[in-house]
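User: Hi! I'm working on a homework problem where we have to compare a predicted structure to a textbook description. Could you give me the structure for the chain below?
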Amino acid sequence: MASHIALHEAGIPFDIESVDTDAGLTASGIDFTTVNPKGYVPALALDSGEVLTEGAAVLQYISEQYLYQKQGEQTPTGSLLADPIQRARLREHLNYTGSELHKAFSPLFTSTTSEENKAAARTNVAKKFDYVNHLLSDGRLFLLGTTFTVADAYLFAVSNWANFTDLDVEKWPHIAAFLQRVAKRPAVKAAMKAEGLIK
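Assistant: Happy to help. Predicted structure tokens:
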């Protein structure tokens, strides 16, 4: 969903195709491993024929190509990320969300995970949420301050999994407030509606 949100934020035309990762098929019946041999989403097929995979890489590509300099002009995001430290912070947040938070949720979506291991996974997610909640406790609206970036799209998508894994996000009030803020963005509403998460 994070890449989907970022594409809406960029305001560029794109097509989306759902993938049944258990069956390994796209909605049109294509063997998904011919698109992404790794077998998981997201995969971004470019007009050049190249396919990008890995959520953080896809998000950085969208950000660099479309959000930094939309139509050749500096956008607020572009101005912010012209600073090398801010670009590094963006990667820092993307990497933490991908390698720590996203990974911590994984056992909760695996049917073979025992209840004992699911409880341990919830404890692990809670520790990651403690960090993010502390990070957001300084009053910032988004991870890099007042400007929404692709890192926020990724954090929103992953943190929202709490709703499907018996985690009460209200225990982390700054994350809960962040989720409410981000959910109001038109691009987020469009992505969630397209994915059947809201009407």
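For your comparison, note the following. The beta strands are 19-20, 25-26, 43-45, 51-53. Residues 123 and 197 are 26 Å apart (CA to CA). Good luck with the assignment!
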